């Protein structure tokens, strides 16, 4: 093999190697052509003496929380947990957490365009990413005017993993301050099952009756699970 042929072969091998790297693969085929490991490797960018960006990315994807695995675990893991991975310092850990938050906001922005406060499915879709990742029960009050337009949304209660304290008095004090004519209640079940408990049924009925005295209608109570929901309106529980 002459020198020219040898050089050409080395260049071809080098080009083949470069095309296998995440950044080069992105430039050739776009983001959709990359695996999750490759996408993360581009964000991580640099490796260590003992680990390439791809190997570090693989370790990030093996992190799991009590609720999620893989990419979705980035919502729950702490900066400290991420920084336990060799090659992930504070800056990279912050970037990874920001990616998770950006993805949540992008999902919320997309569902906002289809949101109708008279259609439980669109309400659940819009608030799903905001609530399904929560590790404690979080209750949101949605205040609406007489045209079913949003006036205000507010977290009114954060409970433990298994229960939450919710006062109908607090709900209507806030609703009256906002000039609400209609309200919606949303809360999550951290376990992932949105089936209403006996306590959920009881407090919903209490809130509904209190609203009747104040001429503020409780339109729905929606419980958010893991990619699932229960609407009291749809189930005719109101």
Radius of gyration: 25 Å
Instruction: Name the helix and strand elements from N-terminus to C-terminus, one letter apiece.
Output: HHHHHHHEEHEHEE
Bin the helical content.
Answer: 40-55%
Detail the poorly predicted runs. Answer: 7-19
CATH superfamily annotation of the largest domain: Cytidine Deaminase, domain 2
Find the structural class using helix and strand composition.
alpha+beta
The fraction of residues assigned to DSSP E strands is 5-15%
Overall shape: it is elongated
Which whole number gives the mean pLDDT?
A: 86
Q: Taking strands numbered 1, 2, ... along the chain, how are they ordered across the largest sheet?
A: 2-1-3-4-5
Task: Please report the distance between the alpha carbons of the first and last residues.
Answer: 84 Å
Major sheet attributes: 5 strands, mixed
Number of strands: 5
Tell me the name of the CATH class of the largest domain.
Alpha Beta
Number of domains: 2
CATH topology of the largest domain: Cytidine Deaminase, domain 2
- Name the CATH architecture of the largest domain: 3-Layer(aba) Sandwich
What is the count of DSSP helices, taking H or I runs of 4+ residues? 9
